[in-house]
Every structure is written in structure tokens, then in C-alpha cells.
Design goal:
The complex is a heterodimer. Chain A is mainly α. Chain A has three domains: about 1-35; about 35-65; about 65-110. Chain A is about 75% helix and about 0% strand. Chain A has four helices and no strands. In chain A, α3 packs antiparallel against α4 (about 90-110). The longest helix of chain A is centred in the first third of the chain and has 25 residues, at about 5-30. Chain B is mostly helical. Helices cover about 75% and strands about 0% of the residues of chain B. Chain B has eleven helices and no strands. Chain B starts with a helix and ends with a helix. The chains are: A mainly alpha, B mainly alpha. The interface between A and B is large, with 68 and 95 residues. Chain B: This is Inner membrane protein YgaZ. Chain B: InterPro entries: Brnchd-chn_aa_trnsp_permease.
Amino acid sequence: MKLTTFEIVVIIAMVAFGTMITRFLPFAIFKGKNASNPYIDYLGKVLPYSAMGLLVVYCLKSVDLKGPSHGIPEAASILFIVLLHNWRRSTLLSIGGGTAMYMALVQTLF
Amino acid sequence: MKEKIESLKAAFPHTIPVFTGFTFLGIAYGILMNSKGYGVGWTALMSFIVFTGASQYLAITFLTTAFNPLYALLMTIMVSARHLFYGISLLDKFKGTGALKPYLIFGLCDETFSIVHSSEPPEGVDRNWFMFFITALNHFYWVAGSALGAFLGSMVSFSIEGLDFVLTALFVVTFVEQWKSQENHMPAVIGVTCSALSLLAFGKDGFIIPAMISILVSLTLARGKKDKAASESGVLEEGIE
């Protein structure tokens, strides 16, 4: 803890402000316009699916394929999640199972 | 009052995976904050008013290096830029939510977005309060989890290495669910491909903005191409729904 209390408060306020800009901006820009705009309407329909793809990649951004584990724990755990989810289709089971497998892999084998 | 309780009951099951994820991730975050000298108070405050995992983890570095508020602001906007997508995706859904709207937007984190976008309340349950309780429950789990983590601090002795994978797992499961629910996989494929290519080209610290731009461009091009067919079948699809 190197910062003064005032500096900590300023940093927290900045991080909160930055986050709120990204959350409120679309609603501020497209206030009431979206219904009459087919392009925004189209984006609203397709973007969530693209955004989820972006989020998956975002979570994996620090995986180093050339590193000591070559991304094997991540790849194996994701494959496991997909198979498990196709089989039982239970969200909790898939998330819990995949995470447990990943923790076991990185703590023991890799 | 009764309708609010009904909405809460309907919302809760949808948030169970987030409860698990946020409890563990929150505890991990709290432990980390504690190790840097920030106790329960700072951790809970941060989780309450910022409420976004990635930026809060990142903010630990702002709090432990030289004071630079502008850098903190710009980095946060970069890391949270994906939230812009959620807003655009939910413009319609949040219409007519009235007084609840500012809070729904404030609490629009990744997990809340994925649930709010993909779930509908059961018959007879108020949609606005349903979305409100999903947001509020997730918000609560995160604040409580991180405060607990800061409290536990150095008491934890077992290894939590790899625990943060719970978030990846949540997104992968949501991705699979969305994939199964859609016949048109183009948006999902564009999302993964553009993001992966941007990551390769720009590296992990600078790929979000190029990924978002390339996704928007690709989706726009894909629309232009299919415009004629889509305008016909689109009407047809909506008619069937």
C-alpha cells in the first residue's frame, strides 16, 4: 500500500468512471433510436454471439502456446467442458467439472 | 411485494453458476487485495462501485505502482470496451424498464449480460424485476465473495491455482448453449475468428479494440451480402416465432 488514501479514492473513482463510460455509452448514443434503425437492430441480434466468442478468447489471452505447458491444460479442459455439456447439458456440472479438471492439471501435471 | 418475491425466485436459479464462480473468484480477488495491503473495506468498496472482474484485477497494479489516474482511466476503458457490445445488444430489452434501467446498465457485467440476454422469465413473472434480481444477486455475490476473501486473507493454506478458470468455463458453456440455440453460426464464428486473429496480430495487451472493430466490419459485410435473402427470411423467421 504505497498510495495515500486520497490517491486510492481517486484511482477507484477513475476505474469506476471508465467502466461506467463503456456501460452507459450505447444507451446514451442510441437513446430511442434503435427501433427505427435496421442496422442497429441487426447488430443487436448478432453481436451477443460474437461477443461471447470474444469473451472466450479474452479469457485465454494469456495462454502461451510456446510456454512449458503449450496450452494443453486449457485445450483439454475446454474440450472436456464441451463434451460434458453436450452429454448432460447441466451448466453447473460443466463449469464445476471443467474447473476441477483444470486445477488438477495445473497443480499436478503441468 | 409478492411480484418482487416471485421475480427473485425465478431469477435465483439462473444465477447459481455465477454464485459459484463469483464466490471463488471474489475470494481469490480479496486474498490478492489483502496481500497488497488493502483490507475488507477497500475490497468491498471496489467491488461495489466498479463491479468488473478484469478491471479490478488490473486495478491492483494501479494501486501498487506510482499514482497515475489518467492511465488508470484509459486502461479501464480499453479492458472494459467489450461492454459497449452488451449495451448495443440489450438496447431493445432494456426499453421500458423505467426506474430500474440505470441500475440494470450499471450492473451489466459479462455474466449478467450472458444470463439477461439468454433467459426469459416464466409466465406471469415481471420481466423488469426478473432482470433486476439477476443483476442484483450477481452484484451481491461479487461484493460478498471479495470481502470474504479479503477477510480470510493469509489464513488460506490450500492451493487455489487454476481457480480463475471458472470464468473461462462459464463463457465456454454459454458459448456452447448459444451455438445449440442458433441455426446461423456466422456471428459466433466471426467472434472467435476475429478475436483470435487480433490476438495473434496485436498481442494480449492490445487486441480488444482491433478485435471489436474487425467483428463490427465482418458483421456489417456479412449483412450486406445476405441483405436481400435476410430481409425475406428474417420476416419469415419472426413470423414463426
